[in-house]
From TrEMBL:
Record keyword Lyase present: no
Keywords: Cytoplasm, Repeat, SH3 domain, TPR repeat
PANTHER family linked to this entry: NEUTROPHIL CYTOSOL FACTOR 2, NEUTROPHIL CYTOSOLIC FACTOR 2, NEUTROPHIL NADPH OXIDASE FACTOR 2
Protein name, entry field: Neutrophil cytosolic factor 2
Intervals holding TPR repeats: 37-70
Family annotation (PROSITE patterns): SH3, TPR
Family the entry assigns: Belongs to the NCF2/NOXA1 family.
Annotated transmembrane regions: none
Length: 505
């Protein structure tokens, strides 16, 4: 089979996947004679969708045999082994996939034709799950802590939930790629499959009729002398209103009234302020962009066609020459203009200067959390915020910080002011120790209750007892749950299942 036939069948199979016609796509990919690692990978994905796990395993084996460094193939074969309950083989493949990341946080396979990003934190998430299935809870927790350091997006909050499950020795869901994501052939190669007219259209070389340009088979017609016309000026394109400008450098906003733009974008400047900020329209949104990040440009039909040609060929634009300009200072003029034009949500520089800057407080406990607080607030307010974040009673939390960057000092109301002096660049690090806060009654006054109903434990921390058992109450968890001791075991139980909490008997 020729390369053209392979590309043609590959594109046909990818189109069937887009229609979710799994059977047709699987047949087309299987009929390709010279299969490469990507086509074997596609076959494995289709077998995973149809739940033929043995066939999927063989397909991924062939994909890895063709390309021993294809990390996503190891990742998918690990998922296949996991669904077959081959947890040791699954663990080995997930580790191999992480190794093939070669220290990178992610691999984006878009340039290779697969709309999928393999994140290192998600691979470690699955490594931890495989360890948990093998009963290796400590190794599972260790890998989840490593995954936390590699988090890049908000969707990776699932790693925090997985860590909470591991601490309770519970399993969690595996991370999988979206169903139907397959490698697709290069668009340029597919475009070459279309037939081309290499001969072109015939032209008239000589004729008895002046300016004859007919090249068909119909009889020649008399030619009419055309009146010369003026050259038509190129039609200028405008989107809504404003002057078109090209973005020279990528701009990342820091406030809600600023607009994110990428290098090469075409924006329309609606208003330019004296403080070198411009109000622009782009992608259906209006916001502020530094004017020194822009350059005027006139969009014509020809320039638009050139831009479309560049986009179709997926060429990467050359990097800008020189260094990016400095972000200009914000003034009042542009903000006042925004309010006059209906942009009341924009704030002036004076108003923003009155807003207190927030400090990110990183708290090292069983796992690391972060809270955003106003610098200089009291110890009680800090303790309240951390208690809410950790979902722990305030009485069980003991905080400390590194005094003068060396030794650890316990935090209280008097030390909180010194702790705020350790803030660096809007960040402060604290350490948290969780202690038990059980208010024990005196031995001769320990309250006892009698079980009205039998209670069967559903969680490891529950206290199981039968109707009529006498339970010694240790503490009151909340209005609905007590902590107590019965028959040598300690746990929590519902208050509605007992009576006589105040008195013995």
């Amino acid at each position: 089979m020729s390369l053209l036939d392979t590309i043609r069948q590959w594109d046909e199979g990818a189109a069937a996947v887009g229609r979710k016609d799994w059977a047709t796509a699987l047949k087309v990919f299987s009929d390709i004679v010279d299969k490469n690692s990507k086509i074997y990978f596609n076959i494995g994905i289709l077998y995973l969708i149809t739940k033929d796990l043995d066939a999927a395993e063989k397909a991924f084996d062939n994909s890895i045999r063709k390309d021993e460094h294809l990390a996503v193939a190891f990742f998918q074969r690990g998922i296949t082994f996991y669904k077959q309950q081959k947890f040791e083989e699954s663990l080995s493949d997930f580790k191999k996939a992480f190794t093939e990341l070669r220290g990178n946080q992610l691999i984006d396979y878009k340039l290779l034709g697969l709309r999928f990003k393999l994140y290192g934190c998600e691979v470690l998430h699955n490594v931890a799950l495989a360890h948990a299935q093998l009963g290796q809870w400590e190794k599972a927790e260790e890998n989840l802590h490593a995954a936390l350091n590699l988090k890049t997006e908000a969707k990776h909050s699932l790693i925090d939930r997985a860590l909470e499950s591991i601490l309770k020795h519970k399993l969690f869901d595996i991370v999988e790629a979206h169903a139907g994501e397959v490698f697709r052939p290069n668009k340029q190669h597919v475009a070459e499959l279309e037939k081309k007219d290499y001969l072109g259209k015939a032209t008239v070389v000589a004729s008895i009729i002046p300016k004859d340009d007919f090249s068909g088979f119909a009889p020649l017609q008399p030619q009419v002398q055309e009146v010369p016309s003026r050259t038509k000026a190129p039609e200028t394109l405008r989107a809504l209103e404003g002057e078109p400008h090209r973005v020279r450098y990528e701009f990342i906003p820091e406030t809600t009234d600023e607009l994110p733009v990428q290098q090469g974008n075409i924006v329309f400047v609606l208003q330019k302020g004296a403080d070198n900020w411009a109000k622009v329209f782009f992608n259906g949104k209006t916001g502020l962009v530094p004017y020194n990040f822009l350059e005027p440009v006139e969009l014509t039909l020809s320039s638009r066609q050139e831009q479309q040609d560049v986009k179709q060929t997926d060429n990467i634009p050359a990097p800008p020459s020189g260094e990016a300009p400095v972000r200009p200072a914000r003034g009042k003029e542009m903000n006042i203009a925004h309010r006059q034009n209906g942009g009341a949500h924009f704030k002036s520089q004076d108003e923003k200067s009155k807003e207190p800057m927030m400090c990110v407080v990183k708290v090292h406990a069983t796992y690391t959390v972060a809270v955003s607080l106003k610098p200089g607030i009291s110890y009680t307010a800090v303790l309240e915020a951390i208690s809410e974040k950790l979902n722990q009673p305030r009485g069980t939390i003991s905080l400390s910080y590194k005094k003068n960057g060396t030794e650890r000092a316990k935090l209280d109301e008097s030390e909180m002011e010194n702790a705020w002096k350790e803030e660096r660049n809007g960040h402060l690090t604290l350490w948290c120790e969780l202690t038990e806060n059980i208010e024990m009654a005196p031995k001769d006054e320990s309250p006892q209750v009698v079980a009205i109903y039998s209670y069967e434990a559903s969680e490891p921390e529950d206290l199981q007892f039968n109707s009529g058992d006498v339970i010694t109450v240790i503490s009151k968890v909340n209005e609905e749950w007590f902590e107590g001791k019965c028959k040598g075991k300690v746990g929590i139980f519902p208050a509605a299942f007992v009576k006589d909490y105040k008195n013995k008997g």
